[in-house]
Each structure stands twice: as structure tokens, then as C-alpha cells.
Amino acid sequence: MGHAALPVFYNVDPSHVRKQTGSYAQAFAKHGGVYKEQMEKVIKWREALTELHGVNMPRYPWTDGPEYITQCPIQPGSKFSQKIILSSEEGTIWWHAHSDWTRATVHGAIIVYPKNGTKYPFHKPNAEFLIILGQWWKSDVNAVRDEGLATGADPNASDALLINGQPGDLYPCSKSSTFKLTVDHGKTYLLRIINAALHEALFFAIAKHKMTVVGTDGSYTKPLTRDYITIFPGQTYNVLLEANQRPDHYYMAAITYSVAPKYRNFYDNTTTTAIVQYRGYYTPSSPPSMPHLPAYNDTNASVQVMASLRSLANAEHPCNVPLSTSTNLIYTVSVNTYPCINDSCAGANGTRFSSSINNISFHSPTIDILEAYYYNISGVYGDKFPSVPPLVFDFTADYLPLVYELPSSATEVRVLEYNSTVEIVLQGTTVVSGTHHPMHLHGHSFYVVGWGFGNFDENRDPLRYNLVDPPLQNTISVPSKGWVAIRFEASNPGVWFMHCHVERHLTWGMETAFIVKNGKHPEAQMLPPPSDMPPC
Ligand code: C2O
Ligand code: CU
């Protein structure tokens, strides 16, 4: 394996706005933020474009990042200043490229410390470490993507999963560079864990040690002590690790969760490892002990963190979940297949894969939606994105009506009134799917008020919502045979992307956008664009 540097991280105080200037190529070269040799390939192909994942960017969607949603791609050799504006985020968030599949290697953490004069809402750790779960690709990721699109098949898997840029000891060729986290017995460490993999939901654990989750995405949570966590692409967890075991070295490890049969090898099913090593004199056990991880297809295990996560909901970290909602939407999220006619298709049973929300597969426009909205350019998008009526079908039955299996293709968004209170029930369907759908919303964090397996029941399920201490997140895993209900106040005017963070689902069309209208007050209106917006 080649050289891989640790990802960059920026330390930001939430009360400040920082500017990152220069081309991303320069920034990355300077900080060694990506796996170099791959980065060069990516840069030759197209300049990276960055999203500030989970940064809410109040009133300023202009530098939010997703291509053809809020801006056009930054062309090779050109520059664009990416302004970061935080609102209430704290803990660990991240940034990544949002153009094609470049985010595979172009990503890093943004760490938001408590405001000056305030403390962590948990015992102060002795030290902090960043753990970025990623992937090694021998091929150019965009070539993998293009090949998948050309054949209609699942794209190839990566060549290894990584912890901080290293595949770990199970790959003898790179064993000498396995990531090591050195600890002192008796101390407590804060691990900031990010899943930056393209498609893989990951089980993660540390041998003989428990982890206490104290935060997710951009907010803190009530402590939740676990033997393992499940982390979906796009999510972050802050966990406390107590070095309270016999001084030795121990493996931490991650594997993919997938309900697809193992032989359908589009998920990386390797195990990546790193080492937690106690300082001191002792004879280390050989090999270090491996953590116990759930079986790769253990769906029950995959929902355990989601089932128990709660927000702090106290005076310093109040819960502002809307108790009632003015806009109620039901969106189905599906992976679909197209029959192949006059075409050579290499997907399941000779079909071509597609994805959709409410049976509409998102068609990317050629100028960004934000610009079209702001300057009133017609013909770029439609604003008739539908909400499905509840309980029409059993969406998780084995067969759906044909009309639900063949999506149409369109560029449709939904318009939200400023300050409307929104509930979205995201209903997974079983048309085809090997995993849950980590649905991510830009511009707003949302409260996860309920979830379940099977079809959402509009009469029964809302009665069980958690409106007391639901977690505040920006990426939530919708079970492929289940549903999740989220609530937020549409208080951020602009254009905001919502999509599945499984990259191939995004490529196939599992996305849409919201336009949040301006409020009356000048303070409730979008700010004007910067002068250096990249042209289309
Ligand atoms: Cu982390 Cu739109 O993505
Ligand atoms: Cu998905």
C-alpha cells in the first residue's frame, strides 16, 4: 500500500466564521489531506468540489457545495472561496468533495470545540483522536463509477477498508504502517469517528473495551455505552474510550454491514484494523485480541444505536423539536431495476439499476438549482415534487405495483414556507436493496422522532414518537424494510439537497432538494452570492 497521510482537520469555534481560500488542490497538497497518488488522478480529471457536510450555513447556501444544486463545479486551475458558517453545530462534522465520486479520497474532519467559557457535557477526556473510516482504491474511483453506469451493474468494491488511511495488520504488505493509538492506563480518550466510505455501513468495535457514545453528527447526546457501534456513510460519532483494561495492545476493527449475499461483491467485505496500545513495559499478547463484531448481515445489530440514541435535552442543550407540524410529507426511498431493452445490462438478472425518491429518479440539471431559483431562470427544475399518500401499499411487501418499480426521471424540488414545521416520513421499500439508506439533509439538522420496521402506520406510529429527547442529526439510516420520521423547522432560506449518502444510490437518483423561501424580515432572507461563484 502506498503512502497515506492523516486527514486535515480544522479547529473552529462556533462563534466564528472562517474562510478557506485557494483551490482545493493547493489546500490538500499543503496539508497532505488526501491519499496523494490518487488525488493527482482526481485533480487531473476534475477539480474537487467540497461540501461542508452537516454545516448548516445559515442564509448562505452559496458555498454549501453539491454540484448542480448550489453551485457549478470548480474547474481545474480555478479558485473558489469556501466560506464555512456554523450555527449550533458542535462536536464532529466533516467536509468532503461533492462532485462525482471524488469524496472517496477528498474529505476531512471539522472539529467544533465548546464555546469559550463552556465545557464538554461529559467528563473532560485526557486526549482526543480522530478516527476516519475510509477506503483504498487501486483504480480511479470515477472510472469505477463510469463503468457501473455504462453497464447498469453494481460498481466494483474498493480494495480495502481503512482506519486513518491504513488497511491494518490483515494486509501484511502494509502492516508496518497500521494506525496505532497510544493510551495510558486509567485515562479517558475522546474518539471522533467519521464514516467516509462511499457505500459501506460499518460495524466498529475495540477489543475488550466499551465505547460510550456522547455525540453524533453536529450535536451531543446522552451517554450510551456500547460494545460496538454501527456507523453509516455520512455519520459521525463522538465516543469516550476508557483505557481500563490490562496493559496490552488491542485491535479496533471495522467490517461492512450488508444484507446482500456475500457473493455479490460490490461491498468491500474486508476487515480493517488499527491498534490501541497501552504505554508501559509488558509482554504484548500475540496477536492482539480482535473485537467481537456482529455478523455482516445482522440487521438487528445494525439498528441498535439508532434505537437508543437520545439528545441531552437539558438547559444548556435544549431540545427544540416541533411538537406539531404544518407540512407532513411521506417519501419512499427505493433502489429500482429497469428491464433491459436493446441494451446490454449487467445488473441483477440482466437489468439496470436505478434509485428514486417517491418513484422519481433525480435528473441532475446543467446549471445549479440555486442560481436558477435566485435569478428566476425557468426550465431548470420543477417544484412539484410529490409526497406519497400514506398506506397505499405495503411498501415492504415482496411485490410492489409495477408503477412503483419503474421510476420516472425528473428534476423536481419541494418548496417550503419559511419557518414551516416539517415532518418527513422516509419509507424504505424492498424493491431491491442491500443496505439501509443513510438519508442526509443539507442546511438543517433534524430530530429523529421515530423509526420502525415494516410500513409506516400514520395512525399508530406517531403516538410512539419521541418528542422529549430525540437525537438531533443530519444523516439517518432508513431501514431498507422500514421507516424513519424526522422533524425540523425550515428556518434556513436557500436551496438544500437531500440524498442517500450511499454513493451509488446517489448516482442512481436517490435525491431531491428543498427550496426554503425567504421570510419577511431581512434577517430571515438569503444573503447575496459571493462574487467568485464558479460559472457553469
Ligand atoms: Cu455528506 Cu450531500 O453530503
Ligand atoms: Cu440508499
UniProtKB/TrEMBL annotation:
NCBIfam families: laccase. Gene3D superfamilies: Cupredoxins - blue copper proteins (2.60.40.420), Toll/interleukin-1 receptor homology (TIR) domain (3.40.50.10140). Residues 51-116, 128-280, 408-519 form the Plastocyanin-like domain. Its main location: secreted. PROSITE patterns: MULTICOPPER_OXIDASE1 (PS00079), MULTICOPPER_OXIDASE2 (PS00080). Binds 4 Cu cations per monomer. It is found in: Secreted, Extracellular space, Apoplast. Its EC number is 1.10.3.2. PANTHER family: LACCASE (PTHR11709:SF487), MULTI-COPPER OXIDASE (PTHR11709). GO terms for cellular component: apoplast. It is an enzyme of class 1 (oxidoreductase). Keywords: Apoplast, Copper, Glycoprotein, Lignin degradation, Metal-binding, Oxidoreductase, Repeat, Secreted. It comes from the Eukaryota. GO terms for biological process: lignin catabolic process; signal transduction. Its cofactor is Cu cation. Lignin degradation and detoxification of lignin-derived products. This is Laccase. Belongs to the multicopper oxidase family. InterPro entries: Cu-oxidase-like_N, Cu-oxidase_2nd, Cu-oxidase_C, Cu-oxidase_fam, Cu_oxidase_CS, Cu_oxidase_Cu_BS, Cupredoxin, CuRO_2_LCC. GO terms for molecular function: copper ion binding; hydroquinone:oxygen oxidoreductase activity. The lineage of its organism: Eukaryota, Viridiplantae, Streptophyta, Embryophyta, Tracheophyta. It catalyses: 4 hydroquinone + O2 = 4 benzosemiquinone + 2 H2O.
